[in-house]
Amino acid sequence: MWVYLAIGIFLAYVLFKERQALGCPNVPNGEDCDNANGKAVRGSEPKPGDDKETLYKKILLGAKFMDRFVVWRVSIIAGFVSAMLIYFFIYSRVPTEIELSITMFVVAAVGYFLISFYRFHLIAYIEKNIADSIDMLKTMP
To answer: Could you state, in order of their start, the residue ranges of all structural domains in the chain?
Structure first.
């Protein structure tokens, strides 16, 4: 029972922090949140009055969204949802404390490592190409 309680409290914290990061630092009166103001997106929106330098900075900021994206929280959420679905659909029951803990950890770890793998082997190169392209655009007349 204590493990369920601990997982529940931890999951509530993770969901709260993730919702804040998506653009809801304060949710007054149950108003809808604006994901365009989220931590990973904020500051990258181009505006009609922006000059070239500002647009270059915003492009670079937008390209590096993964640096502001908290992967472990998403992995924990996916781990919990996956564990519940696996045990509900395969075994038609709620997982025990140890099954829930282990399944959450395994799914979260696999998700975290997969995202980290793609961040290192793919996203870093895309960010570098964008930065190089902006440097080349700056030197053009």
So the answer is: 43-139
